[in-house]
Design brief:
Elements: E1 2-7, H1 11-26, E2 30-31, E3 40-45, H2 50-66, E4 75-80, H3 81-86, H4 89-93, E5 99-102, H5 109-118, E6 123-125, E7 148-152, E8 154-155, H6 166-170, E9 174-175, H7 178-190, E10 195-199, H8 227-235, E11 242-246, H9 255-263, E12 270-272, H10 280-286, H11 292-305, E13 310-317, H12 324-337, E14 341-346, H13 364-387, E15 393-401, E16 409-413, E17 418-421, E18 432-440, E19 445-454
Parallel strand pairs: 1-2, 1-3, 3-4, 4-5, 5-6, 7-10, 10-11, 12-13, 13-14, 17-19
Antiparallel strand pairs: 8-9, 15-16, 15-18, 16-17, 18-19
The structure holds S-adenosyl-L-homocysteine, iron/sulfur cluster (SF4) and FE3-S4 cluster (F3S).
Residues 48-49, 163-164, 166, 201-202, 247, 274, 276, 314, 316, 345, 347-348, 350 line the site of S-adenosyl-L-homocysteine.
């Protein structure tokens, strides 16, 4: 069947969608050209804020309705985090939905599709089925490989921040065996991937929990390495030039991690380190496990090891009982740290989390006001950071044609800033190139090509000869 996947939510969902595409292809299905010619349509959902769920539910409402008029569309399925949260209630909301598979059961998708084709009954797969845990190895495939790819290292989360739905939908923290992670990274490098981003909710906690998805034993296969060692091992892989990882937590910013970041050339000089709030009282209510002193120390340690490291963050405004003074403390702390970029979110109560039991007492307009202020502050700060790079010659990984302007290409700096440039005839996707920054724009930089530092993979040219490597 021709399938198409619409993906909402975070990088983990993007990674899951890619793994599912590879899994479906292995089971004889093929990727459709787009949503319009799909026979099997999957909506990968997110539950992190109410708005994310509304978006996914709206899309599911439209697509399940479209089935009546578009006969080529045979199955519509909901997958991912919202399925884990809503379970059977999804079918009350969406009577024409064919099946729903939760984020922890995605490996069973091909069998669910088969059953859905065989009969009219809606099918639900959520939670963990012990008989299927071995199937997590099925989720190691990649359908599309460009210059850069995601690799899961840590599933789930054990932190239990008081506002967060993720532990409920993704389950407890489990580290994947290092062996499997490195094998996946090696395979990607062999296919021409030059940059991987290792994913986990609190990624530096990697290795703390035993790996139990693939096997319940404690044999070497079930053992996970501490995170800095995993970075070292991945950096040794032939052809992998850049390593990134997300998300960080101050507790993971140990001297060993700082040393690894400072001494392994492949590790990019960027860390996404969500702060959430700059008020110690709010951080405590959020159950984040640090105060601003600890956060500040983590940043100092990183900057000592990697002086020009870019630090980006997530902030929640309007948490229950957040006063104006506490909001201003967040604002001031963001200025003190000087974040390179930040995502600002309005607090959204998630049913079943501890914070959902507390009065959501910051008015919607006030949340919006706080959100706008932090966004404006950050835009100014991000632009100032970009302006400091004007005139410098910087290394970027060429990713290919820019989404906004077909004449130009784009790439990213080690610090994760986007650079657009006019490619010369020699440059290929996956090349590490040097560009001189000529202008700073609100969300990107304009650069001029100086030269190729390291040539990436080369496709056979028109005569069928390899022109490099
Ligand atoms: N594991 C990561 C973040 C996962 S969710 C971490 O802890 O850093 C991504 C971001 O969504 C969070 O950092 C937080 O800023 C935001 N978020 C999570 N739950 C939220 C909620 N209930 N309301 C508003 N924003 C939320
Ligand atoms: Fe959610 Fe906290 Fe885990 Fe991040 S660390 S996923 S915010 S519980
Ligand atoms: Fe990601 Fe949303 Fe799930 S943020 S982990 S897709 S709830």
């Amino acid at each position: 069947m021709k399938f198409h996947i619409v993906t909402y939510g975070c990088q983990m969902n993007e990674r899951d969608s890619d793994a599912i595409a590879a899994l479906l292809e292995r089971h004889g299905h093929e990727s459709a050209q787009g949503e319009a010619d799909a026979e099997l349509l999957l909506i990968n959902t997110c539950s992190v804020r109410a708005k994310a769920e509304h978006k996914a539910l709206g899309k599911l409402g439209l697509t399940t309705a479209a089935k009546q008029t578009r006969t080529s569309l045979r199955l519509v399925g909901a997958i991912g985090c919202m399925v884990e949260r809503l379970g059977p209630r999804l079918f009350d909301k969406l009577p024409r939905l064919d099946f729903a598979v939760g984020a922890r059961r995605l490996a069973s998708l091909p069998f669910v599709v088969e059953r859905a084709l065989a009969g009219p009954d809606p099918i639900l797969a959520v939670g963990v089925n012990p008989a299927e845990t071995g199937n997590m190895a099925e989720m190691a495939g990649h359908a599309e490989t460009g210059v850069s790819a995601y690799v899961n290292v840590l599933y789930g989360c054990d932190r239990g921040c008081s506002y967060c739905i993720v532990p409920a939908v993704r389950g407890p923290e489990v580290s994947r065996p290092a062996r499997d992670i490195l094998a996946e990274a090696r395979e990607l490098a062999a296919r021409g991937v030059r940059e991987i981003t290792m994913l986990g909710q609190s990624v530096m906690a990697y290795g703390r929990a035993q790996a139990v998805w693939e096997s319940n034993d404690r044999s070497p296969r079930g053992f996970a390495e501490p995170f800095p060692r995993l970075l070292e091992a991945a950096a040794d892989i032939e052809g992998l030039w850049r390593l990134r990882f997300a998300s960080g937590h101050p507790s993971g910013c140990t001297p060993e991690l700082a040393r690894a970041m400072g001494s392994i050339p492949a590790v990019c000089r960027h860390l996404h380190l969500p702060l959430q709030s700059g008020s110690d009282r709010i951080l405590k209510l959020m159950r984040r496990g640090y105060d601003i002193g600890v956060y500040r120390q983590a940043v100092e340690r990183l900057r000592e090891a990697v002086p020009d490291i870019a630090i980006t963050t997530d902030i929640i405004v309007g948490f229950p009982s957040e006063t104006d003074a506490e909001f201003e403390a967040t604002r001031a702390f963001m200025e003190e740290i000087g974040f390179d970029n930040a995502f600002i979110f309005k607090y959204s109560p998630r049913p079943g989390t501890p914070a959902a039991g507390w009065p959501d007492d910051v008015a919607a307009e006030e949340k919006l006001r706080r959100n706008k202020i932090l966004l404006q502050d950050q835009q100014r700060r991000t632009l100032a950071g970009s302006e400091r790079l004007v005139g410098q010659t910087i290394e970027i990984l060429a990713e290919g044609v820019s989404a906004r302007n077909a004449e130009r290409w784009c790439g990213r700096t080690s610090g994760n800033r986007i650079v657009v440039f006019e490619p010369d005839s020699a440059v290929r996707k996956g090349d590490l190139i040097r560009v001189r920054i000529v202008r700073a724009m609100p969300q990107s930089l304009l650069g001029e090509m100086v030269g190729i530092v390291r040539a990436g993979p080369r496709q056979p040219d028109a005569e069928g000869k390899r022109n490099s490597e």
